[in-house]
Design a protein that fits this description.
The chain has eleven helices and seven strands. The chain is an alpha/beta fold. The protein has one domain: TIM Barrel (Alpha-Beta Barrel). Strand 4, helix 7 (about 195-205) and strand 5 form a beta-alpha-beta unit. The longest helix is centred in the middle third of the chain and has 22 residues, at about 150-170.
């Protein structure tokens, strides 16, 4: 039940974020802090750009989370909409993967009837993200609703290709998240790496990539390190999470995150890795700090 409630919370947040796309966004490049710069504040090793997903800490005021993020050594807070971007700028943080467009997780590009609305919303948010200094924006396949995988790829590519010109113009990458359909997002179509890779090939642009969520893909297919190595060129972002339960990523769960992180670094990845686990301990920020340190490998 807890997992279902958390999934609902995220879906609700997505819908709310989509409604904020008309918010006024300040002009100018938002400050970015590299992993190397973060080392000066937190003694991190500097090989990884660390991020955190806002929704996992929604009980903490954003400004307090920003302060904690800086102290821990994170350079990004993500899955935040345009109305919150100025707060990140205030604290010298970026958003490695913001949101602010679309119709949520269940209604995505695999359904032709949503294309006009989706294209309009992403055409609106992409220039705003670029103006804020952000180079990615999240998107979703939507649920199958009886659609076979092949047709889902074709439909999704039709809609995404309508956005590639604007994405390329503003140098913003559309990033589709791989989610599990067994536990958290029943019937979601982009639930296997190979499906996402096939869609990338169909779209045919470097401005469309995948968010490889380690938690979700461990549930769906396992073989995490081999998959990352094989398909690294299709992946522009990573999320963490303990399996089972989506909680802390320490030795209470089954994944070996230091080994996974080393594999990611070996692919030459230069983007962000975001903590997206749901802390179950009372001190949530201590759990976040622990997660960052676990992933901070050389």
């Amino acid at each position: 039940m807890k997992q279902n409630l958390q999934g609902f919370s995220r879906r609700t947040a997505l819908k709310m974020a989509a409604a904020t796309t008309a918010a006024i966004v300040g002009n100018g490049l938002f400050n970015r802090i590299s992993a190397a710069e973060a080392v000066l504040e937190s003694n991190l090793k500097g090989k990884v750009n660390h991020s955190v997903c806002r929704w996992c800490y929604d009980s903490i005021p954003l400004e307090d989370l920003c302060k904690a993020a800086k102290n821990i050594g994170l350079s990004s807070i993500e899955l935040v909409g345009p109305d919150e971007w100025p707060i990140l700028k205030k604290y010298g943080l970026t958003s490695a993967l913001p949101w602010g467009a679309g119709k949520g997780i269940t209604k995505g590009f695999n359904d032709l009837k949503y294309h006009d609305e989706l294209v309009k919303s992403y055409e609106d948010i992409i220039p705003k993200a670029a103006a804020a200094g952000y180079n990615q924006i999240i998107c979703f396949s939507g649920n199958r609703n009886g659609l076979d995988d092949g047709q889902g790829i074709k439909n999704s590519a039709i809609g995404l290709k309508r956005l590639i010109n604007v994405a390329e113009k503003h140098k913003v990458t559309l990033v589709m998240e791989l989610l599990n359909s067994k536990v958290n997002h029943h019937d979601y179509q982009c639930d296997h790496t190979k499906w996402g890779v096939a869609l990338c090939d169909e779209v045919g642009s470097d401005r469309f990539k995948l968010l490889y969520d380690i938690y979700h893909m461990q549930i769906m297919e396992g073989d995490v390190i081999a998959t990352i190595k094989q398909y690294s060129k299709y992946i522009s972002h990573y999320h963490t999470g303990g399996v089972p339960g989506r909680n802390e990523i320490d030795d209470t769960q089954e994944l070996n995150y230091p080994a996974i992180m080393k594999a990611i670094i070996e692919t030459g990845f230069k983007g962000h890795v975001a903590q997206e686990f749901i802390p179950k301990r009372p001190d949530k920020l201590a759990s976040l700090k622990q997660g960052v340190q676990i992933c901070d490998v050389v």
